[in-house]
Each structure stands twice: as C-alpha cells, then as structure tokens.
Prior knowledge:
Blueprint: H1 18-27, H2 31-47, H3 54-88, H4 97-144, H5 149-167, H6 171-198, H7 204-209
Helix pairs in contact: 3-4, 4-5, 5-6
Amino acid sequence: MATPDPSADPRPKPKTGTTTTTTTAETEWTPTQKAALSARRNHRTADARLSLPPPQRLLLGTSTGFLVGLTLGGSHGFGAAGLRFRAENAHRLPKEATGWYLYHKSKNYRMMLEGVREGVRMGGRVAVWTGVFLGIEEVVDCVRGRRDVGGTVVASLSVAGGFSLWNRFPLATAARTAKTGLAIGMAYGLAQDAVGAMRGRRPGYVDFILGGGGSGRERNY
C-alpha cells in the first residue's frame, strides 16, 4: 500500500501565529472604549464621598478604626495590667535583686499580654461600629438621592443611639452620647462636603441657603 504524500494535500494549511494574532487583536481596547471606561471611572469617583467608591471607603474606614482601637485599647490594657499586678503583689514585694528581676519580668509579661488582648478587643469593636456607621451613611445617601452632611448626621446619631442601647446607658449618658455623635457627624459631614465642593460637586443646601431654591450642582445618582 502506497504512503500518502503530505505535500499533495489540497487543503490550505493554517498560518503560524494566526490564532494568537486574532486573539490579541480581539482583546485590545480601542481608544473610544478606553475613553468611555475612563469617563465611567471618573464619574463614579466624582460622585462618591471622599472620591472613594463605597467598598473602598468601607475597607479603609474599618481598617483605620481597627488600628485606632488597637492603639487606644492596647495603651489602656497595658497600663491597667501594670496597676493590677502591683496591687495584687503589694503584700509580697521582693527584697533581693533576683526577686526584683523576676517581679519586673512577670509584670512586663502580664502588661504585654493584657495590652495585646485589650487592643485587639477594642480594635474589633471600633471596626464594627465604624462599618455600621459607613453602611448607614451609604443607605441614607441612596434613599435621599444625594450625598451631603445630612446623611452623615443621620448615620452618626443612629450609631450613637445603638451604642447607648447596646451598653444600656442611662438617659443622661445617652443624651451626652447623642450630642457627641451629632458634633462628630456635623464635623465629618462638612469636611466631606468641602472635599466634594473642591472637586466640583457643590452640595444642594449651599444654593438653598443662598436663595437658589435648592437647585445646586450636586449630582444625583
């Protein structure tokens, strides 16, 4: 039986690199598509608070809250553990150099352990309450259709009320906590509005105060 000659095959052979070239050409972005994608990203960040989309702002806020809580809680736990150790061992203070060495070694170990434990505990609490605050702020913004100090104040008062209920504060302490939340919400909200105004997103209440009837340049979404 004769062996077929491959060179006699009439079918055209595929050119080397054709598939790779076609796939690369299909995945390349045209200048129009790149411009549209860039405009979409700029629009999304321009309308967001602090020019950050909600997921990034939530991650940044909770991370910052955890670090702040870790620092404050660690400092408090470190000092409280030292005082507690001194009180527990006040009746049996060492009288020799070796005893004092072991005393301070045990004290430093207890202080470090309690500081880390209290820091992680408080950092987690602050991160959770910060996440709740940012979540309520975003929900209020979506319901109202605008982003200004009003949503921040509502979120801060909600967190203050929830914190008071969680800790079962008396009425006087709850009122003081609400005042603190109101002050923090006003300051933080006005700071965000100032950043948005510098980027061309003037809040609607500015025109309302100036007599424009609320026809500000704030973008709705």
